[in-house]
């Protein structure tokens, strides 16, 4: 029976694609590629390209980068219809996503609209923050400490509540949120213990231990900050 696969392709370095993901990609019949807007390069595809079945049908579907969940949900519903049609026709179908499918991925907007007739397998991938921690030889969390994964797009109030209860933090979605992140790091005296990693594991990745200068540089969508309280 055909199956739908949600595959995490990792943070950027093709060598960080898992063996399982590579094996499945070589066997698929249909591959759905998420696009934030038509015509934009697909980073997930570029990472996995060497392992994708050359005979697979490629279908690009737009998932707009907007805050309106109704719009994203509608995109997921449309993609789910395509998935269901292909899987029920006997074609193994996959959706690829950066990092891991369970973390801030449009993949779950597809899952929620699939019928129970579709068999699903989710294939985990290495996260950007795990790659960034490895790249900087940094421990994310130790002993019984709490690690918080904080989207910089969330409200300042929510970010403060998370930091009050945590020792170590990962700030994701830093793009376009540099002022808010800079302010909250200062508020919790975490600036000096933070590192900004852009395009983690890519060949052109940059690492800034000076958060002020790093955030002042040109905007980069694939940016995260690793931080912790020293006291």
Structure description:
- The chain is an alpha/beta fold and 231 residues long.
- It has two domains: 4-126, Tetrapyrrole methylase, N-terminal domain (Cobalt-precorrin-4 Transmethylase, domain 1), CATH 3.40.1010; 129-228, Methyltransferase, Cobalt-precorrin-4 Transmethylase, Domain 2 (2-Layer Sandwich), CATH 3.30.950.10.
- Helices cover 31% and strands 21% of the residues.
- It has eight helices and ten strands.
- The chain has helices at residues 19-25, 43-48, 69-88, 107-111, 128-135, 156-164, 178-187, 211-216, and strands at residues 4-8, 30-35, 57-62, 93-97, 120-123, 147-151, 168-172, 195-198, 206-208, 223-228.
- The strands form two sheets. It has a five-stranded parallel β-sheet, with helices on both faces. The chain has a five-stranded mixed β-sheet with strand order 6-7-10-8-9, with helices on both faces.
- A hairpin with a 7-residue loop joins strand 8 (195-198) and strand 9.
- The longest helix is centred in the middle third of the chain and has 20 residues, at 69-88.
- The protein is elongated and about 60 Å long.
- The relative contact order is 0.16.
- The model has no long low-confidence stretch (mean pLDDT 93).
């Amino acid at each position: 029976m055909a199956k739908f696969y949600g595959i995490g392709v990792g943070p950027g370095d093709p060598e960080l694609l898992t063996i399982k993901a590579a094996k499945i990609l070589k066997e698929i019949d249909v591959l759905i590629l998420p696009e934030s807007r038509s015509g934009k390069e697909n980073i997930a595809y570029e990472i996995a390209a060497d392992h994708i079945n050359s005979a697979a049908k490629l279908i690009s579907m737009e998932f707009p980068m907007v805050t309106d969940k109704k719009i994203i949900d509608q995109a997921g519903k449309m993609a789910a219809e395509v998935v269901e049609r292909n899987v029920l026709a006997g074609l193994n179908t996959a959706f690829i996503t950066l990092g891991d499918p369970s973390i801030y991925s449009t993949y779950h907007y597809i899952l929620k609209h699939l019928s129970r007739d579709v068999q699903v397998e989710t294939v985990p991938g290495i996260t950007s923050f795990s790659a960034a921690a490895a790249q900087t030889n940094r421990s994310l969390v130790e002993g019984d400490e709490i690690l918080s994964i904080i989207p910089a797009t969330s409200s300042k109030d929510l970010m403060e509540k998370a930091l009050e209860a945590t020792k170590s933090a990962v700030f994701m979605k830093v793009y376009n949120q540099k002022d808010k992140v800079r302010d909250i790091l200062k508020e919790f005296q975490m600036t000096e213990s933070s590192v900004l990693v852009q395009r983690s594991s890519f060949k052109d990745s940059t690492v800034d231990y000076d958060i002020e200068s790093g955030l002042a540089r040109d905007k980069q969508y694939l940016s995260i900050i690793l931080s912790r309280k020293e006291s």
